[in-house]
């Protein structure tokens, strides 16, 4: 995996655009995965979807639960 720099908030949250960059996909792909109930776990905060960096790492390594 290539070392990609993304903005991680102090509580470990990553915005959808940063999560997509981290995983190597487009943000629309993550939106579609959410719609289909697939992909890494996410949550809504203030009307925006965020991902935890640990969940993204697990998903990228194939260990998502």
Report the structural category: alpha+beta
Average pLDDT, all residues: 92
Helix count from the secondary structure assignment: 3
**Number of strand segments:** 3
H/E element sequence = EHHEEH
What share of residues are in beta strands?
15-25%
- Structural domain tally: 1
Distance between the termini: 20 Å
The biggest beta sheet, please? 3 strands, antiparallel
Q: Give the strand order, joined by hyphens, for the main sheet.
A: 1-3-2
Provide the helix percentage.
40-55%
Tell me what the structure shows.
With 65 residues, the protein is α+β, with helices and mostly antiparallel strands. It has one domain. 42% of the residues lie in helices and 17% in strands. The chain contains three helices and three strands, in the order βααββα. It has helices at 16-23, 27-36, 53-61, and strands spanning 13-15, 43-45, 48-52. A three-stranded antiparallel sheet has the order 1-3-2. α1 (16-23) crosses α2. The longest helix is centred in the middle third of the chain and has 10 residues, at 27-36. The protein is globular and about 30 Å long.
SSE diagram, text form:
Layout: E1 13-15, H1 16-23, H2 27-36, E2 43-45, E3 48-52, H3 53-61
Antiparallel strand pairs: 1-3, 2-3
Give the gist of this structure.
It is built from three helices and three strands, in the order E-H-H-E-E-H. With 65 residues, the protein is an alpha+beta fold.
List the keywords.
alpha+beta, single chain, 65 residues, globular, 3 helices, 42% helix, three-stranded antiparallel β-sheet
